[in-house]
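Here is one chain, start to finish.
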Amino acid sequence: MADYIYTMEIRLTPDQSKGVNLVQDVARAAGITLYLTGGAIRDIISGFTIRDLDFTVQGNPLKLQKDFERAGAQLAGHDDETRTLFLVLPGNVRAEIGMAHTEHYEKVGKAPTIAPASIQEDLRRRDFTVNAMALSLNEGSRGLLLDPFNGVADIEAKLLRILHNYSFVEDPSRLIRATRFAARFHWPMEERTQQRYDAAKENKYIDHIARSAVGHEIAQLAHEDDPLNVIRALEKEDFLKVLHPHWSAAKVDTNGLALLMKTRQQMVDLGYTVDPSAAVMHFLTARLSDKDISDLRRQIPRKDLIESWRDIEEHAKDLAKRLTGKEAATPSRTWNLLSSARPEMVLFLAVTSRHQSVALKIKNYLTKWRQVQQRLPLPEMTELLITPQLPEYPKIARDVFMLLLDGRLRSRTETLKFLKPFAPPPPPPPPPPRRGRGAKAAAGAAPAAVAGKKPEAVKGKGKGAAAPVSAVPPAAAKAPATKADAKTVAKPDVKAAAKQEPKTKAAKVAHKPAKPASKPSAKRPAKKAQPKKSKARKR
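Its structure:
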């Protein structure tokens, strides 16, 4: 179960992942069971571009319209018959949320009877095995893949297979869909499917296609990666005239369409999320009359596509006018203007503009100026320690980039002069080395040991035992009364001391001070030792 969730997370774009989380949160709050279904699952597993997100709920999604709008989604249309919401999620992500239902066809050409159903029954009424899969997004079963018709195997085999023999009879729009999938994926139809396809074409079941299905197929052409190839495949099977009787590959601006798809890929490589659907429809219908174009627009169920297709030329003219005015007088101003414009307008204007100045500015925006931006950070910035770790780095980098675009920083000297005020101060010098704990303890223990010495009597053997000598003479223990006395104490007479030095061995032993019994604590200073009274004196 976790494998499919992991595959979904790495295959979806960041905006699509956020869209899945948004829909999941709204459905969970409403207590509705939610599944990711149809083409989204097929594209996740097969590795093809995920064009849109298809969700299925066991319930009525129309009741969640206000909840989705409060969460940040925009309503792009709805189908009351199938109870389907068409949404544009944040990040310009297209999504459909439909009710799990069954379809009962009484006869060819008649609209089916629709009834709410479980997710398993909903998968049984679908067109091809590769589209009859669902991924659970519910607590407790999240990541569970429902694949009752073994669609994963057909994806691995790269085959298109219908679910039952009456698939093309019940819904003739599946003939157009099979042709479109075969042209997009370059997958052949399974043998039995091909036979049913040929029989349906021979019996002209396509004449009974529903009008709503025609509008859906027209809208799908706008999102193809190679729409011209699909148009030619439909024309070859004589299905393009089903979408509109005056439509043909000759009505398509093939050169403009090829340049559009090339420029779109260039912008995608630069990190832009571009929806070229309106521009694609503009070139696919470039040579149709205004009346024919209006007929096509009326059949499309998604209002967002209709509006963007209708207004694309007007918005492009407005952007071109701004690019030739004072708002784009310098390269830096032009960069700011194009960066704030919709990517779809930049794409369309890059292909359709006949104004040399406008075309050159857009070309520089997509190529030459990008190379200048990629040079940041400059060697001078690194030398002055102006790195991305600084909080003000984004502003400094942007200011440098704008000056480079306008040619106001042309040499290393000018660049350093501009950057020096922003350089961080040098780091403080390292602190002096600290003395170790052992050295500190020894230094503190030495004075305390001297102050805490206790005299010990030296016991001699026999009658020649010397009397005990005090470590500190009583007279020396007293503080000097005057400064003269202090000088006298501070400078003892060395010669006199030498004359009074005992010459006998016993006297030398008695003269030598005894070692202290124990070392005093470092925290608590030792008391001065009082000399012991000699027994000899008492006697």
